[in-house]
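Justification of computing resources. Each target in the renewal requires a structure prediction run like the one illustrated here; the chain below, 703 residues long, is used simply to show the kind of job we budget for.
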Amino acid sequence: MTDIEKQGITSTTEQYGAIESNPKKSQELPLFLGRWAVAPDLFYKIALSVYVAWFVLHRVADIAYIVTVDARFPEGLGHLYPSEAQRLESVAYTREVLMCGFLHRCVVFSVVMALVYFKLFARFDVALREFAAGIPEWWENSYLKAFCDKSSQCCCAPIGRCLGFCCSPCGRCFSWCGRLKDTALNGRLATDISSRVGFPLTWRELLLGSVYLSIMGALFFTMSAPFMYWMQTIDLRFGFANSLVVSTSNFGPKFVGALISMLIMGVPQKFLFLAVLQYRLGWVLMWGGLFAAIIYAQYNVQMIAPMLGMQNQFPHGLFGVARGFPFVQTTNTKAPWISLNRLFHPDEFAAQVSGGDPKIFYTNDKSKGQLALSHQPSGKWSISGTAWFDPKATVYAETQGAAADTTGLKEQSWNVGGPTTAMGVRSGKALRDALFGFARDRKIGIGNIYLVDGSHKDARANAFVTGAGNHSIIGLYDTLFLGMRGSDAEESIDEDQVAELAAGKSMIEHVSELVQGVDVEGADRDRRQPRNSAQTSAMNDDEIVAILAHELAHSALKHMEKGMGVQILTSFVTFATLGWMAHSPLAGAALSLTAPLIHVGACAYDHLVGPPLDGFMKLFTDALTRKHEYEADAYAAMISEKYGTGLQTALAKLSINSNQDPDPPYFFEALHSDHPPFARRWEHIQKVKKKTYGKNTQTLKKP
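Resulting C-alpha cells:
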C-alpha cells in the first residue's frame, strides 16, 4: 500500500486545491502517521465527536456553576465580606461573566459546526480562487487600469526617457525592472524560483492562503465583537476598568480599526507563516524559534523588562498613596476629568535639599494628567496640576489642617471626598530591604523590582515574578497600594442595586449599540462626571511582603524552569499537530479535499482540532500550576507564621476586591483555573501553619 500520508502535499501538487466530491469513496487509504490505514470519514467522525464532546463537557460545567454559584467564604470566614451586598455583587459579577463566555462559545461552536458540516472550509477556498481568477479580466477592462495607464504615459514615460537620455545605465535598469515586473506577474519568475530552491508552492498560492487565513480570522474576530463589548461593559459597571481610559463609546471605531489592521497587516504575517509551514518540517523550525525565544527571554528578562511595560523601579524612599478621592474636573480638553487616586513619588533633588523628608511629590504613571503633591508655606498640603498639564497649576485638593512633614500628612483630612479620603505615606526602602533580605537569606537572585502601572486601565492585577536562574525580576502593581476600583457610587451598594447590576442591559441593546456605532449610556461621557472611585482594601506591608515571599518561592523552588520545560513540551505537541493537519492527505480528505491545502489545514486546526487538544493539555498544565501555587504558599508560611497569616489576609482582600468566587466547585476549577481559589489556598496554608507552629495559630480578621 502506498504511504500517501507520508508523501504529503509534494506528491499531489497538480491537484492542489481540488475538492473531493465524496471523500468517503477513497480508492487508496492514507496511512495515519505512516502506520495505520484510516478512512477519511472515520477520522472525520472521530475529530468531530471529540470536538462536540469537549464542548458539551465545558458547557454543562458552565451551566451547573451558573445555577449554583453563591460566592460564599468557607464556614467561619463569612465575616471577611464587608457586607452581604458585597457577596451578592460577587454572585452577580460571576454569573454575568460566565453567561457572556457561555454564549460566546456557543456562537463559535455553531459556526465551526456549520463550516464542517457544509464543507465550507474547502468551499471558501474554491470561492476565493474563483474570485482571484476573475481579477485579471476585471483589471483589463476596468477604468482604474485605463486611468493608471494614462497617468503612466503622462508622468512616468517622460521621466524614463529623461533618465535614459541622461544616464543610459539608469535607462537599462528601468527596462530590466519592467521585464522583471512582467515576468513576476505572468508567474514565470515564481515558477523558476520554485524549481531552483524547491518551494512546493508559488508565491501566488501562498498569497491566496494568507488572504484565506486573514479573512477567516476576521470572521471569528467579528463574531467575538458583541461579547468583547459585553465584557467591557461588565468591567465598567463593576468597577474593574478605569472609566477615564476605557469607554464603550469608542468601542466601535477601535473594533473597526483592529479589523482593518487584521485584514491588511495579517496578510504579510500569514504569508511568512505559510512560507515556513509549507515544508513538511517547517513546524519544527517554528517550534525551535519559540523554544529559543522562551529561553532567551527567561534568562534575559531584566534586559527586555522595558518592552514589557516596566520602566519604573520600585521607590527607594517614601512615596504617597492617595485613596478615596473623587474624580475632579479640569480645564484641559484632552482630559476633562482626572483621578487623584494615584501614587506620588518624591522629587529626589527637593528631598536632598529638605534633609531627606521631601516636600514635593509627582505622579509618574500612564493616567491622564500629571499631578504634584506639595507642601505650602501655610503648612497645608495640596494636590495640583503640573505646568505642562495645567498652566494655571489649579489646586484640586487641599488639607484642612497644617502638617509640618509627611508624618503629619497621613493624619490630615481633605477638603474634597469623604471620611475615607486620605493620603498615606509608604516606605519603599523598608519594603525593598525586607524583600532583598528575604531573598539573600535563601540565596534567591533578584535582578530588580518594578512598580507596574496597572490602575490606569484595570484594578485587578497584583504581583508577579518572572525570569529563570538568578536574574528574576518582580513586578508589583500599583493596585496593591491603591486598593481601589471604580464603582457607580462611593458607598456600599444595597441589594436592589446589585439586582440592577445583575440584570443590566439586554444583549439586544448591546448589539444594537455596537451596530449603530453609538453608546447610549456613554454618549456624553466627556461632558459628565465619570464613575467615582470606591475604596476597597489596600495591602499593608506585612501582606505585601507575604505576597512577595510567595512570588520568590517560585524562584527558590525552580518553578520557572519547570514551567519552561512544560511549555516547550506542550508547544511541541501543538506545532506537530499543526504541521500534520497542514500536510496530511487524511486530514485534507476529511475536509473534502482531494489534496491537502496548508492554509485550510491550518485554519481547521485553529478552530476544530486545536481547541480540544489545547484544552486537554491544559488540564495537566493547570494542575501543575496549581500544585506550584500550593508549594509557594507553603514555602512562605513555613518561613514565618506572620507570612502565612499575611498571605491569607492578602488573598482574602484580592478575592473580595476582584469579585472572585472564593469557593467554586472542584469540577470548574479543574476545567478552567490555573490558580487554586481562596478557600482551598486558605485551608492549605492553615494546615501548614498548624503542622509547623502547632494549634495556636492566628485566625483571620476582617480585612
